[in-house]
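Summary for the steering committee. One of the milestones for this cycle was to obtain a three-dimensional model of the protein with zinc ion bound, which we needed before selecting residues for the alanine scan. The sequence and ligand used are listed below.
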Amino acid sequence: MTIVPILLYHCVSADPAGWIAPYAVSPRTFARHVELMAASGRTPMTVTTLTDALRDGRELPARPLVVTFDDGFADFADAATVLAARQIPCTLYVTTGALRGPHQSSRLCLPPARMLAWSQLPELAEHHVEIGAHTHTHPQLDILRERVAAAEIRECKDLLEDAMGTEVRSFAYPHGFHSARVKRQVHVAGYTSAAAVGNALSSTADDPFALARLTIRSTTTIDELTAWLAGRDAAVAPFPQAWRTTAWRTYRRLRGRRSTRGVITMPVRPSRPLGGI
Ligand SMILES: [Zn+2]
């Protein structure tokens, strides 16, 4: 099993909107982070490059790294330039109803902030940026009615594909909140991966529809990031509890073949990772 740090950024600004400030880093700090990424000896790749390789059984570089951004803040355009200068690809998960332009939603769950415009997406896609989807209005999917959640998951994909003329295959759960039902809906909608939060290192054994990410906060220190890039100082997904659950399910299945006795209560794995935006 290979450890894969998947970093989660939101906003790169010296003057972020107050509500996103705990998840913002300054351009100066971000430039330092990018230097650390470049010096880490890791091979950066997009989420879909990673998950395609895992699905197809292709060999990965010894030390992969994935950089992701959520929501689609306007300052991402500058961050993308800094990454591109170092040949570091990334995945941007866009909340389509928040983008400036024709599809702005009056039901948006995100507070106001300066966001990217639809017209910027094609150019970003040409500069090592994979565009992924992050719902249309940024709701908590796991508490929505099934039909409403399905519409949120599909609408952003359709809008992005219409705008860019390319397939959108990666998805990120708003706040990382998901459930078995939501994961299934994302799969059915045609995505090939989904990013959660988890605040853990991902790995080649991680669930492609609940990829663990490490949230970068305004308080994240250079030492913390250095450790994460070295594959240290964070739990590694999938977590031991998940393995135990899997083992228990296997035991139940096998046992069920031999016995028709009553229902066995299964231990419940916490389905909600630590939140983000
Ligand atoms: Zn978000």
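Key point for the committee: The longest helix spans residues 146-164.
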